[in-house]
Amino acid sequence: MPMNPDLEKERQGGTFDVEQLTHILDGGRDKTLKRHFLEQEVLKDPVFRGPDTRFLSREELFGELLRKHVAVIKKTQELSIDDINEASTIYSAAMNNNVGPLTLHSVAFVAPLDLMADDEQKKKWLIPAKKYEIIGCYAQTELGHGSFIRGLETRADYDVNTQQFVLNTPTETAIKWWVGGCVAVGDIGPKFGFGGVDNGYLCLNNVRIPRDNLLAKTGKVLEDGTYVKPENPKVVYGSMLGIRAALPKVGAYNLSKAVTIAIRYSCVRHQSEIKPGCGEPQVLDYQTQQHKLFPLLATAYAFHTVGVWMLDFHSTVMNEINEGHYHRLAEDHVLAAGLKAVINWKTHEGIEICRFSCGGHGYSLASSLPVIYVNHVANSTAEGETVILLLQTAVYLMKCVIDLEQGTPLDPSVAYLDQSFSKSEQWCSDVDMHSLLKAIQFRSKKFTEYVSSFVKKELMATGNQQLAFNKHKVILVECAKAHTEAVIMNAFVTKVDEILQSNPSVGKVLSLLCQIYGVTEILAHSGDYIQYEYLRKIDLDNIQDQLFKLYTYIRPEAVLLVDAFDFHDEVLKSILGRYDGQVYENMFKWAKASPFNKQDQGTFRKYIQQLKQAKL
Ligand SMILES: CCCCCCC/C=C/C(=O)SCCNC(=O)CCNC(=O)[C@H](O)C(C)(C)COP(=O)(O)OP(=O)(O)OC[C@H]1O[C@@H](n2cnc3c(N)ncnc32)[C@H](O)[C@@H]1OP(=O)(O)O
Ligand SMILES: Cc1cc2nc3c(=O)[nH]c(=O)nc-3n(C[C@H](O)[C@H](O)[C@H](O)COP(=O)(O)OP(=O)(O)OC[C@H]3O[C@@H](n4cnc5c(N)ncnc54)[C@H](O)[C@@H]3O)c2cc1C
């Protein structure tokens, strides 16, 4: 199909090599080539062809996705793929923006086995689980409790005579609920999205399991029922850490899809007139459309950068723990918690803004933006609800303030809390990314000190830490968000500095995005900067001008920056986001193909005719 002339023109501009940026995003040219190969292995294989999942009922969708997910597993085994990113490429190429039914098996069943099973148990369960010879799920949440793990009611009573645990869900609120991939007892019913996963319920009534079913690499129960505590009790929470550490990159992936769709479509869509008689401009030429989408484009790059960094950090900590070193578990936990919470929340807001920016066609499943949204938004609840996780990060920051007072060294990701910040010169409208980072770190430091003063006062008054925290949860959450933004901006600036050395033209365009991210974050909290006397009104006015100026620099690069995400049309599965920009013809073709247009529903005659007979 010929290229839409608008997109063709967009692709003639730009100041950087798109392919080189794709290689950077993938982690190198070889990884890009391998990704292309794996995508083609899926796209050319007829087993992955099937009905458009956007037209399917819940039951049909589950069946079709299970069929495809099994084919993904077979293809992954056939190609002997064990790299997580490569396996994800095969999965994403097949799933059409859905979550596959066996996802929980790999992310929530295999991972804890890897982390907490001893060698014997690994042989017995981990090896067959990795081969899908046994399928598992993660049944932690109950009807009555999800966030508050210490409130879970399920019982596991040890029967010393039979060396067994007797499992019971003694109350209705104890029923295991939301269990993804739980095909045992029942499905919890239709959901907002996640239609590909059969989230189930599980009632346990004197279910007996052998003593050695308790994963024994950390804690264990001896034959006489004695419980041997793990060296570090918190490692038991580690099974939730793995998914949380991966979800920032999942957020970046989903936001990258949404901005690709919205920016390409905004170049194809012409609407209204700026100068009468001079034709309808591309909607991306409106400053308001740029204000919706360019901060999100910058955010997608920022989230990808910090998502890759988080996964590397987590993998290093897990290797340390496997060797018995737990000193970085706390930092890993609060980084994963804060990044998972902030990134997934801002991503689902961003996907919605992308949908809105496509007008009516964004609301159609033809755009796939609703599909991407409803499947992504679960990530702000699943694997740790947003506020719950931010509170974890906030409590850690309160401890950092005490550590600072006591002269205890801080973890690297919070070292800036021990720095002094000063800004004397007036900001003009070309503030560099390092100065923006310093400002964001300054705000986080001041906010942490401010919140800590309230918590301390409350602690003095009540002597109860939980009460003190509970009274100030709103500002504790904001404090955790401020710190997480400092982590994100630091990762982005560090990566862009590195790229400026290796590939100046790519680095330069990314530094513009980094400035957009930083300026947007500062303007979103301008009151704090005035209150802490770090910025004056003139500074804020100047960086507002800077933001609009940055939009003019990014405008000619925008399509190339989303092309660099390199989503194959079959992976993006969006008519608005097609690489060739041939939207209208394909929208009409897609609509005509809808089953709703295929068979005469018969309902018209059945009901409307009655009205006519009723002599209106
Ligand atoms: C492609 C997308 C796929 C997505 C699939 C999604 C599938 C979804 C699966 C699920 O949803 S599984 C269920 C997830 N459930 C949760 O996340 C529950 C959230 N709640 C908790 O984690 C805990 O209740 C809590 C909020 C952490 C509270 O724990 P607790 O009541 O024990 O009190 P605290 O004092 O806060 O914590 C004790 C101690 O432990 C440290 N800690 C807590 N969590 C972790 C962890 N994950 N890793 C390491 N350390 C942890 C915490 O910092 C405290 O340390 P100290 O302060 O005592 O030093
Ligand atoms: C798509 C999806 C898939 C899932 N898959 C699984 C799975 O496979 N296995 C599994 O075990 N679970 C699963 N879950 C459950 C998930 O882990 C829980 O929903 C999540 O942990 C939130 O707990 P909750 O539902 O009890 O919400 P609640 O904790 O009841 O939250 C309700 C509200 O109360 C607030 N709140 C709660 N506690 C506090 C507090 N201490 N301070 C301040 N505010 C508070 C929360 O912020 C929230 O606004 C899944 C959930 C979803 C949506």
From TrEMBL:
GO terms classed as biological process: fatty acid beta-oxidation using acyl-CoA oxidase; lipid homeostasis
Domain Acyl-CoA oxidase C-alpha1: 237-398
Active site: 383 (proton acceptor)
Keyword Zinc-finger: no
All residue ranges annotated as the Acyl-CoA oxidase C-terminal domain in the record: 432-611
Domain Acyl-coenzyme A oxidase N-terminal: 17-135
Ligand binding (FAD): 141, 180
GO molecular function: acyl-CoA oxidase activity; ATP binding; FAD binding; fatty acid binding
Cofactor(s) it depends on: FAD
GO cellular component annotations of the record: peroxisome
Record keywords: ATP-binding, FAD, Fatty acid metabolism, Flavoprotein, Lipid metabolism, Nucleotide-binding, Oxidoreductase, Peroxisome
InterPro entries on file: ACOX_C_alpha1, Acyl-CoA_ox_N, Acyl-CoA_Oxase/DH_mid-dom_sf, Acyl-CoA_oxidase, Acyl-CoA_oxidase_C, AcylCo_DH-like_C, AcylCoA_DH/ox_N_sf, AcylCoA_DH/oxidase_NM_dom_sf
Pathways involved: Lipid metabolism; peroxisomal fatty acid beta-oxidation
Subcellular location: Peroxisome
PANTHER family: ELECTRON TRANSPORT OXIDOREDUCTASE, PEROXISOMAL ACYL-COENZYME A OXIDASE 1
Family of the protein in this entry: Belongs to the acyl-CoA oxidase family.
Protein name (record): Acyl-coenzyme A oxidase
Protein source organism: Paralvinella palmiformis
